[in-house]
Amino acid sequence: MSDTTDRAPRRMRTDARRNVDALLEAAKTVFATSGVDAPAKEITDLAGVGVGTLYRHFPQRADLIKAVIEREIDACADAAPALAAEHEPGEALVLWLDRLTAFVATKRGFATALHSGDPAFDGLPDFFLQRLGPALESLLAAAAADGAIRPGTSARDLLFAVAKLCAPMPDEDPGYGRRMVALLVAGLRTTAADQVSRTPPTR
Question: Which of 184, 191, 173, 187 is CA-nearest to residue 97?
Fold first, then answer.
């Protein structure tokens, strides 16, 4: 009896965690296709849970939006060391920025939600910088040391630049932001002349 009693709460916590993960993954998918105002049932049907489970974990729509964004930010931050281990520094930086751009540019309705004045979103800008700033700083430092980009690029400035470039533009297609970020990244890269100027003279 004691053993069963001890295990039951742990099993309930595991089930709850599984439900939350399923809801966040479903919300991420639904938000990308239908926007952040999509019906709750569309999310719960995809997650395989009831609407009551959604509202038990996320009483307000803002709670769910915030949780999805934070989860995506965490995943993007965690990708930096993995990319650095698998690719040359310059390529790792480009791949990570492409991932960041895809996250920022493809979340339909997120920008509007974040600027709605809802206090639930007040901490997200700081969370964005605290999680992604160190990840990007490490990639920038490695790429600069390898000669792949010009030194002196600020991680904070680059994060804000990507966010601004990915903001929805009237009369532009969804790929506009990614093309603008690609131009920005191209500007970071060193040229042959840069490489020559970095080479110490021979004696």
Answer: 184
Contacts of 23 (CB under 8 A, 6+ apart): 43, 44, 47, 49, 53, 54, 57, 58, 64
pLDDT tens string 132-157 = 999 999 999 999 999 999 899 999 99
- Quick one: 8 and 40 in the same domain? yes
Domain range for 105 is 67-197
Nearest CA among 159, 181, 157 for reference residue 169: 181
HSE-CB of 98 using CA atoms within 13 angstroms: 9
Q: Is the pLDDT of residue 3 over 90?
A: no
Query: CA–CA separation, 140 vs 146, rounded Å?
Result: 10
pLDDT of residue 25: 95
* Residue 153 resides in a domain: yes
**Which of 40, 59, 78 delimits the end of a domain?**
59
DSSP 128-139: HHHHHHHHHHHH
80 and 173 assigned to the same domain: yes
For the chain, what is the domain count? Answer: 2
Token couple for 31:
């938000």
Residues 89 and 18 in one domain: no
For 11-63, write each residue's pLDDT tens digit: 557 888 899 999 999 999 998 888 888 999 999 999 999 999 999 999 999 99
Longest Cα pair distance anywhere in the chain, in angstroms? 83
